[in-house]
Design a protein that fits this description.
11 strands, five-stranded mixed sheet, globular, alpha/beta, Purple Acid Phosphatase, chain A, domain 2, 4 helices, 15% helix
């Protein structure tokens, strides 16, 4: 059994989190509030020092520093931290793939529908654990006003059976926090730590870091 600890959308508030133990730690993007290089350095310093043996993260639309093409591997390589951007890694027998792209919104890593379709076509069919910044449309993607904000391309891949990972983690839509099993084949997890805007932010309340166990 592999214990995967997952979080997303910490927006600079990672130091206040209680992070459970596990084999693999995953961050699904938006560790930044303003997208600065200083925030990136601070996040990586914190992330690399956590005790989990393996760590994986992707960018989110607020992580502007990662969109500039800098090479940060020297910061985290020795600590078994993997940055995935349309790329994968195998850890403890599980095949991971990470991709940051979301529909047009504020920030970076946004693409129109046809370009997203090209990026998501790179996802291997045998992936075990998929990490995207945003959710598929209609799945854990509602804001507190009831609107669905997920990606229609990812929805097509999920409902059409093109993507069948054991575990699919994301954030981006803070109000969609939670878990959902789809057709007994895929567990979806929205692990956004920051609550939906206006729902707990002023009081400092954060959603809990989630833990999933995989065979």
């Amino acid at each position: 059994m592999v214990k995967i600890v997952c979080m997303s959308d910490t927006h600079g508030r990672h130091h206040g989190l209680i992070v459970p133990d596990g084999n693999i730690l995953v961050h699904c993007g938006d560790f930044s509030a303003r997208g600065t290089e200083l925030e990136l350095m601070g996040f990586l310093g914190w992330f690399a020092l956590l005790p989990h043996p393996h760590k994986v993260f992707i960018a989110g639309n607020h992580d502007e520093a990662l969109s500039r093409g800098y090479e940060y591997e020297w910061l985290y390589g020795p600590q078994k931290v993997h940055y995935l951007c349309d790329s994968g890694v195998e850890i403890l027998g599980l095949k991971f793939w990470g991709t940051p792209w979301v529909p047009p919104s504020a920030g970076r890593f946004i693409l129109p529908v046809d370009a997203r379709r090209e990026k998501f076509a790179l996802i291997p069919g045998d992936v075990d654990v998929l990490i995207t910044h945003g959710p598929p449309r209609g799945f854990l993607d509602q804001s507190r006003n009831g609107m669905h904000w997920g990606c229609e391309v990812l929805q097509e891949s999920l409902t059409g059976g093109t993507l069948r990972p054991k575990l699919w983690m994301f954030g981006h839509i803070h109000g969609g926090y939670g878990e959902l099993d789809v057709a007994s084949r895929t567990k979806l997890v929205n692990c956004a730590v920051m609550p939906d805007y206006g729902d707990g932010e002023a009081s400092g309340n954060l959603n809990g870091v989630r833990v999933v166990e995989l065979d």
